Amino acid sequence: MKINNHYLPRFHIKKWKDLGGKLYNKNTDRTRKINQLDFSKKNYYSTDGTDSLENRIAKFESYISEIIRKIDGENESINLTGKQLYLLKLYCAFCSYRHQFTSEVIIEDDFAMYKSNNYLWGVRRYTEKKDILYITEEIVKVYEIVEQDSNFDHLESFTSILPSKKMLAIGNPTLALYGQHLAIIRSEEKWMCISERCAIIENTLDSDHLFTYVPVSPKTALLLVKTKYYLDQKKYDESRKRLSLKNGGYRPDPYLSVIFGSCASRNYDSSLFCSYYKPFVKSMVHVGETFLPNNDYSRVTVKINTIPKLIIDNFNAIFYQDGSKFIHINDEQLIRARTLPTDYRHITMDF
């Protein structure tokens, strides 16, 4: 059996290691080279006395690592099949579910308006080992079925139709994907860092999932984003108005995400919009310009949005604050992660 199981994928860590990345240990206040046992636990995924689950996870990671390699090689957009799109979304949820170390942006709320995980679908944060192993295996099962299906055509649903009762079964991993789309962001420099807190969830004040952030290399991150809020500019503006009124405001909120909306010189919330959403397509069988509703997302082009350092700094700061082992490439990243103010993580009400 494999004794040490990595809860942060080794191919993620290698992206930093190959660029000379270093690991800062907060407990010892020392920086050292990255080694092969970092971010692993003994027999973490062993079930029934075997490492079968660990081996199946490795196959999922191998499939995804090839897609991420292609994404890292592109500058503006990436062409994906429906299968690749679906499995990248599944992988974002998987990165959060597979261990107890996922962080959340908001960690304290005086008036308990914010209640972690109090939502039906979107990426949740699991902390109990039995739940982690269960949902991890369920996600791997979904991967295996989809990967083997040569006829799989993923059709994104941008409608308001609610999921079926069968879909709402406890522990169904597709709940994390319902009503979520994929966004990809790129750092201006190789500025993204990681720790054992290898995914971050930002929720609304009412604890509704906004997005899950998963850095997969020093320059690229995948995000699973709530389509209800971030489909396009129209939906985004409607959401700002609706959420403000719901929480007692009298004008639209200036932003939804404190990370993308308030942590830069301008609002970057638009970076989370669904870049491959096309409500209508031109008909090829009618004379003239005739447009028909688009239901085919079996092939998509996903835009890669470049994000300023300050936004990445805030994600890095959360990883540093909540983790104990922080991987970075240069000392400036460590200093900024250690000293950056993150007051937005603590909600206080003034009356």
Q: How many discrete domains? A: 1
End-to-end CA span: 59 Å
Number of strands: 17
- Assign a percent range to the helix content: 25-40%
Low-confidence stretches: none
Beta-strand share of residues: 15-25%
State the order of secondary-structure elements, H for helix, E for strand: EHEEEHEHEEHEEEEEHHHEEEHEHE
What is the rounded Rg? 20 Å
Taken from the alpha-carbon principal axes, the silhouette is: globular
Count every helix, treating DSSP H or I runs of 4 or more residues as helices. 9
* Main beta-sheet annotation: 7 strands, mixed
Strand order of the largest sheet: 5-15-8-12-11-10-6
Tell me, rounded to a whole number, the average pLDDT: 88
Please tag this protein with its features.
351 residues, 4-stranded antiparallel beta sheet, globular
List the helices and strands and how they pair.
Blueprint: E1 4-6, H1 10-17, E2 22-25, E3 30-33, E4 40-42, H2 52-72, E5 77-81, H3 82-97, E6 103-104, E7 108-109, H4 129-148, E8 180-187, E9 194-195, E10 200-203, E11 209-217, E12 220-226, H5 227-230, H6 233-246, H7 258-262, E13 280-282, E14 291-293, E15 299-307, H8 309-322, E16 325-328, H9 331-339, E17 346-347
Parallel strand pairs: 6-10, 7-17, 8-15
Antiparallel strand pairs: 1-4, 2-3, 2-16, 5-15, 8-12, 9-16, 10-11, 11-12, 13-14
